[in-house]
Amino acid sequence: MGCSGCSTGRGTNNLPGGCKNNGGCDSGGCNKLNVFDWLSNMNNPSMADKPDWVEVRFKNGRKAYFDNIDKLTLSVGDVVAVESSPGHDIGTVSLIGELVRIQVQKKSVKTNEILKIYRKARQGDIDKWQDAMRMEKSTMTQARKHAIELGLDMKICDVEYQGDKTKATFYYTAEQRVDFRELIKIYASQFKLRIEMRQIGARQEASKLGGVGSCGRELCCSSWLTDFRSVTTSAARYQQLSLNPQKLAGQCGKLKCCLNYELDSYLDAVKDFPSSNINLKTEEEEFFHFKTDIFKGIYWYICKQDRLKFVSVPVKRVKEVQELNEKGEFPEHLIQEKENPKIEKEIDYLNVVGQDDLTRFDKLNKKKKRPKNKRNLKNKQPSNFKIDSQKNTSKKTTSNKNNRLINNSNQKDQGEKPSRQNPKKKFKRTKGKNQNTDMKANKSSKEGQ
């Protein structure tokens, strides 16, 4: 959307910002409503005597069809001067060949109304055309000011100058009919041009201005969509969408055109579905419809007795229960409990070693243990003392064990119970008491003296 035939992306010198081809690439470049000519390499000999029609693109994707009477050698991207009323207009060739005939038949264009191509645009024609495009923004701001001053309930969304600067077309949107006769007089006296007012809808406005949709892509109407079909809320209901106007509306404020894209597939899937307005009854409970999953073929029901009980029922089972209820029969359960037979797995291959494991080459990052802090050597005693002390303690422990065994044996012979000695003795602190007694003794001696 940055080439010379588009309103957006025009900078200094009217050069495109993206592909840097000055709007002359063979495929149409980044222009709006670009078309791929899939019949470009095919010649139809039966159409040799038929007129040579060419599709020409103007501002904002506006296209028209012209007759190449002089048999000019044209290619996609050529700038041509075409017939207009009055004068002539400048446009870019967007499509040639056999595909143009198909487009004329598809859009039901009257062949008597097809105008002709004059010539390829000269440098003087291109300079005048570029000057006219630079005047469009300033003209639109002034036109909006005059419309606000007159108090007209309308919005001027775009202005398009003709290539020879003899006519300007003002596109506007309005909810009601507007009397703009005085406005045209002001425009004609100020701009000194032939003025044409053309009312468009909200979707046509969005296609001219362009933008990005909620899907994150460029708007369909500004990139490839040419016909605007009516969209109703029933399309959202068939697709089980919540009727939230903020989510269903597009940039134009109307329902999104993409709601019609998948509607046919949803309608085909819903043909064999039973009615969801009929409640399902069992011996003890009654269920009403909550929502539908069309492509999985599942109905979701809620129990009337217990509103927190949601049950998913296949479409086939829903038909069976409805037929039973019509006959006056009520099943015991809404869903049939299937017996799941135990299937013994045949042992075919065991991955004992783990050679088929995808993570067999991954190594766990084990954290290295930090060495413990070394103690100060000053507090350590000499090694000789340690050895001697260990020997002494070992001798003492062995002697104590022997003495205990002897005492226990003597007590058993005498019929007495062996006394249990606690290895760890608890010592009471007597330091504070001794100090208190010494203080009392000193006081009494002093008093005696």
Largest sheet: 5 strands, mixed, barrel
What proportion strand? 15-25%
Could you state the order of secondary-structure elements as H and E?
Answer: EEEEHEHHEEHEHHHHHEEEEHHH
Low-confidence stretches: 1-16, 23-29, 383-397, 430-434
Average pLDDT, rounded to a whole number, is 78
> What is the SS-derived class?
alpha+beta
Rg over CA atoms, rounded to whole Å, is 48 Å
Strand arrangement within the widest β-sheet reads 1-2-5-3-4
Count of DSSP E strands?
12
Helices, by number, come to 12
Helicity, as a percent range: 25-40%
Shape: elongated
Can you describe this structure?
This protein is α+β, with helices and mostly antiparallel strands and 449 residues long. Among the domains are: 12-122, no CATH class; 135-207, GMP Synthetase, Chain A, domain 3; 230-271, no CATH class; 280-326, no CATH class. Helices cover 31% and strands 16% of the residues. The protein contains 12 helices and 12 strands. The strands form 3 sheets. The protein has a 5-stranded mixed beta barrel with strand order 1-2-5-3-4. Strands 9-10-11-12 form a 4-stranded antiparallel sheet, with helices on one face. It has a 3-stranded mixed sheet with strand order 6-7-8, sandwiched between helices. Helix 3 runs antiparallel to helix 4 (181-191). The longest helix is centred in the C-terminal third of the chain and has 32 residues, at 383-414.
